[in-house]
Amino acid sequence: MPSRPFRSSAWLLAACLAVPAAPLAAQQGPTIDLSAIDPALVIQGVGDVILRAPDRDIDGVYQAVHAASRDEREAEALCALFDSDADRSLFGLQRAANALGPDSRQRFVDAVLALAVAGSQGVPRPYDVAAAEQVLRQAGVSAMLLHDGFMIGMSATGDDPASRTARCRSFRQLVDVMQDFPLEQRALATRYLLREGLDRYGRDL
User: I need a surface site. Which of 47, 50, 70, 172 has the fewest CB within 10 A?
Assistant: First the structure.
């Protein structure tokens, strides 16, 4: 399924969900500080929050990724997390977040806070894994038809400059294609990717 790069960025977002709302809301400076966060908090209860959050708040997370992916410098910061030797600890995620511009950092903070608040107050929503995977397959097919070389980038595994460039380009193309999908489908796919990212982060703790 052609979704590995987007899944890696979702892992970053899943980690951010563990940041308590108060410290995040108080984060008025130019950087994001995750130094006080216990990594184990990332996997405690966050999956339930993701399942309870309304589609509009799940989509807010996607929109934050989409906005960052449209800026070449910021996309490179996210794409660096795809490298085989990338630091995906909380400190590594913090560095990636702080490599984004101030507007993008604020969008991520706002999106995560909205999702955390709405998800903690909501009720469980229907969640169809097979349907989410189908949306991602459709997005991959659309990107493949629209962009020559899309699959080359999706299958690139090297850490050489050419592989990194191709991988990042395909990531940006996939995220951009999903913008044209209905909100319900975007939210379904993003919810799936957030949970996948959370599971992966938990396995690596």
Answer: 70
